């Protein structure tokens, strides 16, 4: 055999060996944390019966309180928070009989339901009660007025029904029913309801600091974040996603100093031009996308239920990682889950069209992926603009991504079992691209999770912070049952 033939035979053998290895790895692939994906091995406590229509009326009433967090806090109507807090007390007497209440940072609520065994770590459940404003001029686009609290078409309509009064009412309905049924927790249950999550979460930060000062070490913390995606693309059916981490956050201001003057006699390069070059220098050098972290764990967990090609790619990611990255990054949300994102959002130049600006500035918002840091982001922007003569600085102190929580802990098992709807839904970990109050609680718990048991399609998720926000009665029922089971199981 000549040399060419030997090379061809060798290549064929190598390809055959690779194919054999890939086939074996595919056939023997097991998801990470095998056996806990659905939490099937957890025996969930039964949820007490709840009057769903009454709960819907309660949520509708909660919507009517305009606890709106404006960007400028001076625009907030403080009396609305007082009225809402009084309403909670009147509406849930059994819950308030078993829990003590503290108010921190002005209007954030901290409830404690003492457990019978003080040696056990408590569980901490979060749900904020402030809401975002309705964009002026969009009110006529709402099917029902956003603060009327209307129950219609098997849903409760209004701002905050999903984000996040629905969760808070679900929690209180669950606790009211548990308390009325005579349930006594073995471990302490702590409820924290932030009053300003939509404006930075200073209330949640104060609550976390209060618990830390008391040396509280929680078994786990649960907040909003991810949910059940009805049309999850990878499987084409509902999947419950539990957030095990969230991205960090920070905004850089890029400022290009300039001399200014009359636009009729411009210099060779204006401040606006320098700023444009700086912004392009930063955005044209994005952080690389990698198949790693919580987003990769999500795909790895779901691979056994996915199409054979997906399972093969995940089982052999050493060979198919570029393909996996390309497929996940086909959507903006998928791409965002794989790296630190860079999003220019605001610009400032001259106050008049015929005046050269004395400086030009641009703002870039970053969502920092686990494994990265604010320090690395700043260095990246500084390196990219070196030599352009611009100033690079944080608008406000940034914060790094949260630690990644366990997918094999007892807490995750309980949450996964409750989220799986009796084992009917696959459950997987995921990454929260946005921010929640839970980021402050890593100081009191190793495991911080982010999940609401809502079933929403990708299109329906768009109503959050948008028009026609509403919570179906089926989703309200899921909320109440989920929180009942989590509390009764984790705290029994």
List the helices and strands and how they pair.
Elements: H1 3-27, H2 52-63, H3 78-91, H4 93-98, E1 100-104, E2 108-113, E3 123-126, E4 150-152, E5 155-157, H5 165-180, E6 189-193, H6 202-213, E7 220-232, E8 237-246, E9 248-257, E10 261-262, H7 271-283, H8 293-302, H9 308-315, H10 317-328, H11 332-336, E11 341-348, E12 355-356, E13 359-368, H12 374-384, E14 391-394, H13 410-419, E15 427-432, E16 448-456, E17 470-472, H14 473-490
Parallel strand pairs: 3-6, 3-7, 7-16, 8-15
Antiparallel strand pairs: 1-2, 2-6, 4-5, 5-17, 7-8, 9-13, 9-14, 10-12, 11-13
How many β-strand runs?
A: 17
Q: Structural class of the secondary structure composition?
A: alpha+beta
* CATH class call of the largest domain: Alpha Beta
Q: Under the CATH scheme, which architecture of the largest domain would be assigned?
A: 3-Layer(aba) Sandwich
């Amino acid at each position: 055999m000549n040399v060419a033939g030997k090379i061809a035979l060798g290549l064929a053998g190598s390809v055959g060996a690779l194919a054999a290895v890939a086939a074996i790895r595919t056939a023997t692939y097991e998801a990470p944390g095998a056996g806990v994906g659905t939490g099937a091995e957890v025996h969930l406590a039964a949820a007490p019966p709840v009057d769903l229509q009454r709960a819907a009326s309660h949520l509708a009433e909660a919507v009517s309180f305009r606890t709106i967090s404006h960007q400028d806090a001076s625009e907030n109507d403080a009396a609305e928070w007082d009225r809402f807090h009084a309403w909670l007390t009147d509406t849930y007497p059994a819950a308030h009989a078993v829990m003590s209440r503290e108010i921190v940072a002005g209007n954030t609520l901290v409830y404690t339901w003492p457990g019978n065994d003080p040696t056990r770590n408590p569980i901490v459940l979060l749900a904020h009660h402030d809401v975002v404003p309705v964009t002026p001029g969009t009110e006529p686009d709402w099917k029902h007025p956003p603060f009327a609290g209307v129950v219609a078409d098997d849903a409760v309509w209004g701002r905050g029904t999903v984000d996040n009064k629905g969760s808070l009412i679900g929690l209180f309905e669950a606790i009211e029913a548990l308390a009325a049924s005579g349930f006594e927790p073995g471990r302490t249950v702590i409820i924290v309801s932030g009053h300003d999550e939509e404006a930075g979460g200073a209330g949640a930060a104060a609550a976390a600091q209060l618990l830390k000062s008391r040396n509280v070490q929680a078994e786990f913390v649960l907040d909003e974040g991810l949910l059940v995606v009805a049309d999850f693309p990878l499987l084409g059916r509902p999947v419950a996603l539990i957030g095990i981490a969230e991205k960090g956050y920070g905004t850089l201001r890029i400022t290009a100093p300039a001399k200014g003057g009359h636009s009729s006699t411009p210099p060779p390069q204006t401040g606006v031009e320098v700023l444009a070059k700086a912004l392009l220098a930063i955005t044209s050098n994005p952080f690389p996308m990698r198949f790693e972290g919580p987003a990769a764990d999500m795909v790895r967990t779901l691979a056994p239920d996915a199409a054979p090609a997906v399972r093969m790619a995940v089982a052999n990611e050493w060979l198919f990682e570029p393909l996996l990255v390309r497929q996940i990054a086909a959507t903006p949300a998928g791409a965002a889950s794989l790296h630190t994102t860079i999003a220019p959002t605001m610009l400032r130049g001259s106050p008049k069209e015929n005046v050269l600006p004395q400086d030009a500035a641009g703002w870039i918002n970053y969502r920092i992926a686990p494994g990265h840091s604010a320090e690395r982001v700043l260095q990246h922007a500084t390196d990219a603009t070196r030599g352009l003569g611009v100033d690079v600085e944080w608008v406000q102190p940034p914060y790094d991504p949260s630690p990644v929580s366990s997918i094999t802990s007892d807490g995750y098992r309980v949450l996964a079992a409750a989220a799986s709807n009796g084992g009917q839904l696959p459950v997987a970990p995921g990454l929260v691209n946005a921010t929640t109050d839970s980021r402050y609680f890593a100081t009191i718990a190793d495991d911080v999770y982010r999940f609401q048991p809502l079933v929403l399609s990708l299109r329906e998720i768009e109503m959050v912070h948008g028009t026609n926000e509403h919570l179906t009665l089926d989703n309200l029922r899921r909320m109440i049952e989920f929180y009942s089971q989590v509390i009764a199981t984790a705290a029994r």
